[in-house]
Amino acid sequence: AGIKNDSLLSFYRIWNNEKLLVIHNLTGMPVKIPYNKFSEKNRLVFPKELNFENHKKEKLMPYKTVIFKVK
Fold it and tell me: Alpha carbon of 42 to those of 22, 27, 28, 48, 61: distances in Å?
């Protein structure tokens, strides 16, 4: 679910009656993901400090996770 990439684990989860999209980088290398695609349609809930406009080349850093609230 979410993103098809062998370097990423992505899945949907229901929490407090809200649908979340969880994306985790399984590798020791940065992995490009379509942040703009997800941030336009959904709200970032974790981590809150991530700024998509300033994030270099839309890469998820090694072993990091992002969570979006799906609209």
Answer: 12, 25, 27, 13, 20
44-66 in b/e form (b: 16+ CB < 10 A) is beeeeeeeeeeeeebebeeeeeb
Query: 């590798």: which residue's tokens?
Result: 27
DSSP, residue by residue, 7-48: TEEEEEEEETTEEEEEEEE-SSS-EE--HHHHHHHEEEEEST
> Smallest Cα–Cα separation from 63: which of 33, 30, 22?
30
Token representation of residue 22: 């969880």
Dump pLDDT digits (tens) for 21-54. Answer: 999 999 999 888 876 666 667 777 887 666 544 4
